[in-house]
Specification:
The structure is a homodimer. Chain A is globular and about 65 Å long. In chain A, the strands form four sheets. A seven-stranded parallel sheet of chain A has the order 10-9-11-8-7-12-13, sandwiched between helices. A four-stranded parallel sheet of chain A has the order 5-4-3-6, with helices on both faces. In chain A, strands 1-2-16 form a three-stranded antiparallel sheet, with no helix packed on it. By secondary structure, chain A is an alpha/beta fold. Chain A contains 15 helices and 16 strands. Chain A folds into two domains: about 240 residues, Aldehyde Dehydrogenase, Chain A, domain 1 (3-Layer(aba) Sandwich), CATH 3.40.605; about 150 residues, 3-Layer(aba) Sandwich (Aldehyde Dehydrogenase, Chain A, domain 2), CATH 3.40.309.
Chain lengths: ~425, ~425
């Protein structure tokens, strides 16, 4: 695609989404749910085509020697498509946040003031090669009254295009416009830069993916960004921790699923419980195939432990690796998290309520836990039903981004002739 | 100041604010109010010095042939300083939003989940030449637990420096750090660009001022921005409007104060009530010295009316000028607002509730009013007590930005050993 053609394509889909959002913003819950049902049915009907498109993507990926982890994310089969379809029905069953009253009051001027939830408008989502995100993001956006521009990873181009085709056919057979959902139809990397300049039509950019992608988007975007940079999560074992609980929680926080952003990457351990609590944890982790990197106080516990360097405190492994550091006390743990953490999710294990409250108050992360696994950092566990991701910035939304976090508000003031004195 | 020196100054104040915010975030309401009281007392004690500094600014401004309107904004006297001081006491009396529970629930996993209000962190504010903003913004930030970096207009440099000096002396005699409030100590324009790059330490930028300043900040900032671009507000007189009410509201919406962002700039009038309602409004406005620019249907009503051009629909006059346009119906009015409005504040005058609800629903502005003056777009009228400005973007906060809008939230999860299945 020529540069000129690409510019006009990006402008065209953004403008169409912008126009469509004026109608979608005020669509009834019934109209949105009906369209979602049509979308689910079209994905069901088009299964064969989607799987054929996925074979093309998989073949190209294999030729490009892509890692097994990435191939697994890219892969679709009947059962994964069924999951995508049941995800759409899941969103149909969620409560529609649009139009609800957040606050209503009448000041002394006698005007009835109502803060009402409304959609954001047009959302651009930039993501890597998981075809299911194409469906999840589109349907979350639709239910929350937002139009969406999708820019997926090049590896999933054919799979995503096939899914978008089904979504658009679903929309065409509904009351909503097919322009509510749009996909960038080129894998050219310059398209991302063009999209980030469409502040005239696009109200929010959500990047999902690796650190490099998200940092680039945050720096280049002229549109507000809601992103999670990374999930460098910590668990701190306090001097007053219950040994049994510490073992259970750390094993779960690290090993339940190592590839998710809520997995613990660094364990902080109070100096006085190293001898009592750590050996059991380390033995079990090593048994389960986890590599341990630790400072010299801890290294003596087991000859399989490697030396931790400063790089380890800065690394989100997303793998069977855990770094462990000795700390003096809870303040020392908080300081380490402030210096190396990513404002995502951090936990303390202690039976001392006062110490726990200091941790919950002073750690500035989106999610802070006492006596529970960091793997609870998940929209489903929060009761949100479905999520777009976990935000670690300070503005608009922090933590899991579900339907409500994809909305904003306006003030509707109802008077009876008031003029301001 | 040399470029190198300037870079190190900006980095230094941003880093100090970042460090101070870790303590200020958890300061008690009592500590914050005590510091605010000390600040009020120091401004009171330093009145003479502040007024002397203001004389320097005023003399320089006069030498630079600055407009009377700007000179008036810059000017300080005993009574304006008293207003600044009473503004500080006003903020002391406002409720502290920090630490309050927004939502608390316990999902089936048995973890007690609490969404708690916390400060944003460090806020940078870029504003024009009103010295009172220096005190207002600093004290609003302090009460909401945020550290602040101030970059005022060059014209008010000496006045603002003197006020900052009093604020820092107040902080020094309190439990809070003087690093909570910092001012960029150069009028070099490059300092703004440097500040907009401090995303490592600064969490939010709030620009206050003209359109050019705010657009520059929105485009250049690597830090999230909360801004109001302009207040191109509309009032629409519907076919079912009450004549008396329409006259009162339009006169107030345009003329009460023409220089504020909530003033009506364009009047939209249903074609069928031009003859009945408009003549009285136009006569009264002209009597009060207001210039009218209108389309040809309306121009025939009075020989003093000038021709409106497309530029008029795009202009925020902030002056005694009103543009008037004929529209076919409420949909036509909504379309005009969508095309030319600034998402700030728009009003409908009608006795027809159904028409009113269509307008309140479909106009996408931060504030929409039925049968009331657009001049109600004000934090005080909303019961917020004090405001940083009126936001017109879609994210984080819309409409008046008071204490609550200067906060964010985190999730505190309290478990008893939960691990995720």
């Amino acid at each position: 695609m020529h540069k000129k053609e690409m510019i006009s394509h990006i402008e065209d889909i953004c403008f169409k989404a912008y126009k469509a959002s004026n109608t979608l913003s005020h669509a009834t819950t019934h109209a949105k749910n009906e369209a979602l049902e049509k979308i689910a049915k079209h994905i069901q009907k088009d299964k064969k085509m989607i799987l054929e498109a996925n074979i093309i993507d998989m073949d190209m990926a294999k030729n490009n020697n892509i890692s097994d982890a990435l191939l697994d994310r890219l892969f679709l089969d009947e059962s994964r498509l069924d999951n995508i379809i049941s995800g759409v029905y899941n969103i149909i069953n969620l409560e529609d946040p649009i139009g609800s009253e957040i606050k209503r009051w009448k000041p002394s001027n006698g005007i009835d003031m109502c803060q009402t939830r409304v959609p954001i408008g047009v959302i651009g989502i930039i993501y890597e090669s998981r075809p299911n995100v194409t469906a999840d993001a589109s349907t979350l956006a639709l239910k929350s009254g937002n139009c969406i521009i999708l820019r997926g990873g090049s590896e999933s181009f054919y799979s995503s295009s096939a899914i978008i085709n089904s979504i658009k056919n679903g929309l065409k057979s509904s009351q909503l416009s097919e322009d509510c959902v749009n996909m960038v139809n080129t894998i050219d990397r310059d398209a991302v830069g063009l999209l980030l300049n469409m502040h005239k039509y696009v109200n929010l950019i959500i990047p999902r993916g690796g650190k490099a992608l998200i940092e680039r988007v945050q720096i280049d975007s002229k549109i507000p960004v809601l992103s999670h940079l990374d999930g460098l999560c910590h668990t701190y074992i306090d001097v007053d921790a219950n040994k049994e609980m510490a073992i259970n929680i750390v094993l779960n926080a690290k090993m339940r699923r190592t590839g998710i952003c809520g997995a613990t990457e660094t364990l902080l351990c109070h100096k006085d419980v190293i001898i009592n609590i750590l050996p059991d944890i380390i033995n079990k982790l090593i048994e389960q195939g986890c590599e341990i990197r630790a400072d010299k106080n801890i290294k003596v516990l087991n000859h399989n432990i490697k030396n931790a360097t400063i790089e380890d405190w800065q690394t989100e492994y997303l793998d069977k690796i855990l770094s462990i550091k000795t700390v003096e006390n809870v303040s020392d743990a908080i300081k380490h998290i402030e210096k190396f953490g990513s404002n995502h999710t951090d936990a303390i294990i202690t039976d001392n309520k006062q110490t726990a409250e200091i941790f919950l108050k002073e750690v500035n992360s989106a999610i802070v836990l006492h006596n529970a696994s960091t793997q609870y950092a998940d929209g489903g566990e929060f009761g949100m039903g479905a999520e777009m991701g976990i935000a670690t910035g300070r503005l608009h939304a922090r933590g899991p981004v579900g339907l409500e976090q994809l909305t904003t508000y306006k003030y509707q003031l109802r008077g009876n002739g008031q003029v301001r004195p």
